[in-house]
Amino acid sequence: MIFIVVRFTTLPEWTDRWLDLTADFTAATRAEPGNLFFDWSRGVDNPAEFVLVEGFRDDSAGAAHVASEHFEQAVRQLPQALATTPSIISQNIDATDWSEMAEMRVEPAP
């Protein structure tokens, strides 16, 4: 799996509209055949910071994502709302999906 985390910091006038601005991009990416997840979180300490956690099946799925029209449109459209260049971590990992956390188990209700 390609596991990607991207940190975006928005301009103040775009912070409350960021998820609306990225909605079409998010929906199109989630519909890609090789996409495993594409999830946004908002910073607790800095509400202008949004973190995107992405998973793609393999290198070909990741390459198809970057070559897609919706990705190219996001590259053109999103910078207007950003205060800084996004920072990214992208790694190939030996996984196919999320796993349960062994150290914190919740037992099903009886």
From TrEMBL:
UniProt GO MF annotations: monooxygenase activity
Keyword Oxidoreductase listed: yes
InterPro entries with a match to the protein in the record: ABM_dom, AI-2_Isomerase_LsrG, Dimeric_a/b-barrel
UniProt KW keywords: Monooxygenase, Oxidoreductase
Domain ABM: 2-92
Catalytic activity, EC: 1.-.-.-
Pfam families in UniProt: ABM
Membrane-spanning ranges: none
Protein name listed in UniProt: Quinol monooxygenase
Annotated organism of origin: Nocardia xishanensis
